Amino acid sequence: MNLLGIITYAGIFVFAVTGALKARTNRMDVFGAVVLAFVTAYGGGTLRDLLIGIRPVNWVNDNIALALVLSATLITFLFKQNFRQFRRTIFFTDAVGLGLFTAAGIEKCLLNGINEEYAVIMGVISATFGGLIADIFCNAVPNLLKRGELYATACAIGGLIYVLLKHTSLDYNTNLYICVLVIVGIRIYSKRKRLTLPEI
Asked: How far apart are CA 137 and CA 160, in angstroms?
């Protein structure tokens, strides 16, 4: 397994935890938590694969996918009484997950012949649409569409930088780290400074 594969699985686990926590917020049972964990972790990547014609989609026949979702749900259940202590950690790991998924989505699109502009769009979809689908399942307005700190915008900026740096002499791993750091930095800064996009 290469570096991209490892960090992609790390991002999947982080987003699965996020989905399980969302199920707790909406007072769902364990089955509902597993469903939301899986949708949050794999929804964006599944939509990306369907849009660019990859068959089978990324999680089919991947036993690690199911193991990560189940373990994330279990860990969320075990830390039921101590969730508030981990809220800040979850924010940071979620930001890292956004960066990893954005870069992974872009890379997969480029490998399948998608041009750079649409690869960035697909990278944003990979990183953010799992959470959007999970919110729809919860019958709530998706966080992606609410006015708040920069989210998809951070992914778009980081993804654009990632694509531009591919035309330089930087090696693949360094480019990946820069993409993740940019997205995490924008997420943290926008959260602390309460930066938002202008209202329509």
From this structure: 30
| Cβ pair 124, 154 in contact under 8 A | no
d(CA 111, CA 101): 15
With respect to residue 122, please indicate whether it lies within any of the assigned structural domains.
yes
How many helical (H) and strand (E) elements, i.e. helices and strands, does the chain have? 7, 0
pLDDT for res 81: 60
Report yes or no: 127 and 105 within 8 Å, Cβ to Cβ.
Answer: yes
User: 164: which residues sit within 8 A by CB, 6+ positions away?
Assistant: none
**DSSP assignment string, 102-150:** HHHHHHHHHHTT--HHHHHHHHHHHHHHHHHHHHHHTTS--GGGSSSS-
Of 142, 178, 174, residue with least CA distance to 157? 178
Q: Tell me, yes or no, whether 200 lies in a domain.
A: no
- The pLDDT value recorded for residue 185 is 93
Rg (CA), the chain: 16
Name the domain count of the chain: 1
pLDDT at residue 84 in the model:
61
Q: What is the pLDDT of residue 154?
A: 93
Domain assignment of residue 161, yes or no: yes
pLDDT for the residue numbered 193: 85
Tell me the residue range of the domain where 127 lies: 3-193
Q: Is 198 a domain residue?
A: no
